[in-house]
Structure formats: structure tokens, C-alpha cells
Specification:
The chain is built from one helix and 13 strands. It is mainly β. It has a single domain, classed as Immunoglobulin-like (Sandwich), CATH 2.60.40. Strands 1, 3, 4, 6, 8, 9, 11 and 12 form an eight-stranded antiparallel β-sheet that branches. A three-stranded antiparallel β-sheet has the order 10-7-13, with no helix packed on it. A two-stranded antiparallel sheet has the order 2-5. The N and C termini lie far apart (about 45 Å).
């Protein structure tokens, strides 16, 4: 009987130590800069977290949108700091060009609090830099969102 009691103790400890469900991070819509008629001057094109755009010296042709993000299954009423990768670039589909992606920002003010269900939503905007030598075409790329529990 002594051996059986020891085994039950180990099984009980394993059950108690089971990990919590993993946080889910879902991109509902992608960050899109839309159509842009670039000039021969260098300048930024921005999409705000609220979905607005500013093309500066260039002309916005529409189709822009902020990224919509959803955090699920996080700690209840927890605060997470948001930060972003740097040095990211968009690459021309088919090759032949890159565009710097910079100044990523969010509607949460870089600190997000989940609700009692462990969920939160926020939007992301950013900026690209177009120059006179930027080839026309479709561009794609990635960036990293870093969540840190506070």
C-alpha cells in the first residue's frame, strides 16, 4: 500500500501543476498602406491606429487600413506593455525593391489592459518611407509585436 500512496501523491502533484491555457494573439486585419502615387521627393506615408492616412508629399489613393489585433485567453485584468520590432522592411513582390517600415504605434498607448475574460483589442498604425528611387509595385512584409506582462 505504501507504494500506491506514493504514486497517487505524484499524480496529484502533476494535476495541480498543469499549465494555464496559452495566450492567443489574433490579427483580424492587416496593416495596409493602400495605393500611393509617389512623387520624385522623399517622404513618409503614415497610417494611424484610428485608420486615417497622411501621405505628405505623395498622394493617397485609398485602400489603407490600420491592423486590428485581438488578445484572447490572457491573464484576467492584466496589463501588458506593447513594443515593436525595428529595422523591418517591406519587399517588392517579384523582387527589385524594399521600403523601410518604421514608427509602429498603437491605439492602446503602448500599455493594454485585458478585461475580466482575459481579452483585449487594439489597432496598429505605422509609417513607410518612399523615395524617388522606390520602384512601383506591390510590397509585403512582417513586423513583430512584443507583449510583456507587467
Amino acid at each position: 500500500m505504501r507504494g500506491l500512496a506514493g504514486l497517487l501523491g505524484i499524480l496529484g502533484a502533476l494535476c495541480v501543476a498543469a499549465p494555464a491555457p496559452a495566450l492567443e494573439f489574433v490579427e483580424k486585419t492587416e496593416l495596409e498602406f493602400g495605393g500611393i502615387a509617389a512623387t520624385q521627393s522623399q517622404g513618409p506615408v503614415a497610417v494611424t491606429p484610428q485608420g486615417g492616412s497622411n501621405c505628405g508629399v505623395h498622394t493617397c489613393l485609398g485602400g489603407h487600413q490600420a491592423a486590428r489585433m485581438h488578445i484572447k485567453k490572457a491573464d484576467r485584468s492584466a496589463q501588458y506593455s506593447l513594443s515593436y520590432s525595428t529595422g523591418d522592411v517591406l519587399t517588392r513582390v517579384g523582387g527589385g525593391g524594399t521600403i523601410p517600415l518604421q514608427n509602429l504605434n498603437d491605439s492602446a498607448g503602448s500599455l493594454i489592459t485585458t478585461n475580466k475574460g482575459g481579452n483585449a483589442r487594439f489597432r496598429i498604425g505605422g509609417e513607410i518611407l518612399l523615395g524617388p528611387d522606390t520602384p512601383g509595385g506591390d510590397y509585403t512584409g512582417t513586423y513583430t509585436i512584443i507583449l510583456e506582462l507587467q
